[in-house]
Amino acid sequence: MITAELEQEIKKGTHLPIMEYFYSIQGEGYHSGRPAFFIRIAGCDVGCVWCDVKESWDRNDHEVKTVDFLIEEVKKSGTEFVVITGGEPAMYDLTILTKELASLGIYVAIETSGAYELMGTFDWVCLSPKKFKAPLKSVVKSAHELKVIVFNNHDFKWGEEYAHQVPDACKLYFQPEWSKNDEMGMYIVDYIKEYPKWNISLQTHKYLGVL
After folding, report:
1. All domains of the chain in start order, with CATH
2. What is the rounded CA–CA span in Å between residue 103 and residue 95?
3. CB atoms within 10 A of CB 203
4. pTM for the whole thing?
């Protein structure tokens, strides 16, 4: 349980509730295949029914770590690329964490639903908007990558709505929801053949059986 004292440290950004941290590869989206150190921050109120990390939602289920501890773990990995994910990592002030990472010359990416203002400095913003809690316009405008999860055919039209709002240079991806890979994957292939501004993203780490 997060105490009142820890809550104050979390608000300051010196401590964060962490579900897990590990060195692996980025399995999806623009940076797919790139070695990366992942920091998965606990806590999320977006509540996607098909979320594959529901255990990240309740931050009280996870340990609170200091930014200093996380930085040391990143250093041990020897990585040049850190992905901050969740949960919904933008619920927290990541200014201190991202500043420390930047001072090490590390390229920092965040994966967010866009439901909260970004607090921190990021080299890459992957926006994965959700119908359950709409993204903020400021985050949409700062996206380098738009990754829309396709659960049914209605998601194509919904994704196009955001494709018209992100910057022109933003990379566009449709990604099948994992349980519907076979069903929706071919629909995505047919769609992007007709609308080639889009790319397909697959969760290659799941095919490989790695985190």
Report:
1. 4-208 (3.20.20.70)
2. 12
3. 17
4. 0.94
